[in-house]
Amino acid sequence: MTDYSLQSDLQLARELADMADSISAERFRANDLLVTMKPDMTHVTDADRAVEAAIRGGLADSRPDDGVLGEEFGTEQGTDARRQWIIDPIDGTANYVRGIPVWATLISLAVDDVPVVGVVSAPALGQRWWAARGQGAWTSEKISETERRERRIFVSGVTELADASLSYNSLKGWDEHGRLDRLIALSREVWRTRAYGDMWSYMMVAEGLVDIAGEFDLQPYDMAALVPIVEEAGGAFTSAGGTPGPWHGSALATNGHLHEAVLKLLNE
Which domains, from first to last, does the chain contain? Predict the structure, then answer.
């Protein structure tokens, strides 16, 4: 078992994201993009598979003892049972397929089932977010072809639901889980509602642009990279029922100030 530093793990995740971006950006809006349907009736493209394969190859070289969980190729056990990399090669594949720029590669490292490193890289938006436990949350934005601007990010200071902005992702998802009435109740309490969708809602919570984001029907690879970014920015990330971590099928991220009030409304 090798004792890697969090800083070196984060640096590796950012390097893997660079590699992923070069693959996904090249295939984005390509005329020959190969799109198929998986058994769960979600889209998958040749870019999804190529990105995940490249990340797995990089991990095999740099962290050969670590486990890997990825959306496209499943779970690979490592000899170090404490460490697992969690990958969503393209979060927002439906957007990717339609040429909508809201998609990203999500890379996380969980130690003892707790996400401690997260990178969310959205090359079509020109932005990347990252965090490691105890090291703050950060973003970089493309401001020219050769220059990026890097800054630390923080959640908002909004303390009242009446002043809060909510992103709910999908009415259908809430309805299918029997929570549409609770979402409508919450929408009546907040200032503004939008459905920005996918990883972007949670990154806007981390940046203080949105105060609440939530959805259902999620897998760990949809959430793991988001958790340390939201939390290191000062926010809270749980399931819709209030359980910490990305393992429970739903997500609720807030600026922290509003978390208990939102949980109460959603679970009455």
Answer: 6-153 (3.30.540.10), 161-266 (3.40.190.80)
Residue ranges with strand state E in 162-248: 165-167, 192-194, 212-216, 236-238
Report in angstroms the alpha-carbon separations of 258 from 10, 17, 21, 196, 229. Answer: 29, 32, 34, 19, 18
Query: Would you call 100 exposed, middle or buried from its count of C-beta atoms within 10 A (0-12, 13-18, 19+)?
Result: middle
The number of residues in the chain equals 268
Distance, CA of 177 to CA of 168 (rounded, Å):
13
Residue 118, token pair as written in the block: 């997260």
Q: Cα torsion at 161, 253, 234, 69 (round to 10°)?
A: 180
Report the alpha-carbon distance of residue 76 to residue 74 in Å, rounded: 7
* pLDDT above 90 coverage of the chain, percent: 89
- Report the alpha-carbon distance of residue 254 to residue 213 in Å, rounded: 6
pLDDT band with cut points at 50, 70 and 90 for residue 2: low
Q: For 158, phi and psi rounded to 5 degrees?
A: -65, 130
Residue with tokens 């339609």: 98
Is residue 10 within 8 A of residue 62, CB to CB? The reply is no
What is the C-alpha separation between 24 and 50, in angstroms, rounded? 8
Give mean pLDDT, residues 142-169: 94
Pairing of strands 114-122, 127-132: antiparallel
The predicted-structure confidence for 98-118, as pLDDT tens digits, reads as follows: 999 999 999 999 999 999 999
pTM for the predicted model, two decimal places = 0.95
